[in-house]
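Slide 14.
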Amino acid sequence: MNVQMLEDLMKAFVASQFGDVKKRTAGVALEVVAFSFIGLAIAFLALSCFLWLSTFMEMWLAALTVSALVFGISGVLILVGRSMMQRKTIQQESDITSAIEALTSLTSGKVKADGENPTPEETNATIFGVALAAGVILGRAFKR
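Slide 15: predicted structure.
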């Protein structure tokens, strides 16, 4: 494996893992604003349901009904989100195991495709690349 090719591969790998920080920061800011507007819309929806129900029943009963409905929807969303997170954790553990197995096979010092043994420079570059990739993979996998 050519050293320059390995360096280019590692640069591409690191760029794919971390991306452009400015774009990601702007994206997070836009998501926060969007979720704030969604929360505001939900609050107005609950208020309008309360006002509509209060025309048919007493105000305290309308408030209780709307609150019970909101708590019920929140409980369902919590349960669905929890099950989705558990499935992702299991998938991450299997991805980590397969990635570590692939990385250890790279450092075993196997013969190159043309039948020659790798040079010490290529071996050191491969070990460096594998260590960097393993650090990034494990760091992203165990991030909480």
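Speaker note: The CA atoms of residues 8 and 14 lie 10 Å apart.
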